[in-house]
Fold F-box associated beta-propeller type 3 domain-containing protein.
Amino acid sequence: MRGENSDSIPIDLIHDILSRLPCKVSGKVSLHVEAMGSMLHLPYFTRKNGYETVHVICNPSTGQRARLPKLRTDRGSKSFLGFDPVDKQFKVLYVAYNNDHRIVTLGNGKMGWRKTQCPSNHHPSTKKGICIDGVLYYMAAPIDRTYVLVIVCFDVKSEIYKFIRAPDSFDRATMIGYKGKLGWIRWDTSNVYDGIRTPELHMWVLEDADKQEWSRYFFTFPNDKFVDGVYVAGMTATGDIVLSMSFTRYPFYVFYFNPERNTLQNIEIQGFTNHGMVHAFVDHVEDLNAC
């Protein structure tokens, strides 16, 4: 690999530096790391009496949160957040195992769940979805005993569903946005060549949804550049693929790989006090000056 860098940045120093920058500069910070061990104890992340699931929308920049209208949920269901760039509206899509899918438009008025008409009964995957240019993508398995994974393409404005077949090995991949297109990344550390483990990164990009044409890219990395327990967090708006460690331990690293420049940068983050699972959010913008 070319362009390897290693930096160690304490969390207190990061906040001190950003607090001195104007908003336009501090907005370039593109990774938000949370220790899930503390987040899950907040009351709005728990289930009432252990049974009722509460839908909550939270803005991590402002700390504001709001509960959505109550909705009876089923096991195996999943919710996704989408954005309509035409009408500038956010919507939450609830995908149920029994095909009783619901949607709610976020706003200042009275919010209510509405039923959507889906032509194919499907079971949503546990993986995260992604919204790109008004289309919400998520992985699912049709409930027709074909056992073929599909990618659901939900138009947020028209609320119309489309389906495309997922390429092989997508069950182990992470969905990303790549130059305005849908992409998938699979991080593989199980390959061994000449007795040496060689981490590999596989990336697919959907070039034409109607023709279901994909481009595929493949990258290998020196084994000594990574540690165990690394997963794909996503891709930044500048085209860097972000990989993060899964648990808080010393030292803790996040990695930035740029496929076009073929460069790798690893950054150490200090300041974790508790051991636990970590989830990284890509392209999170923190406005520390509240301007």
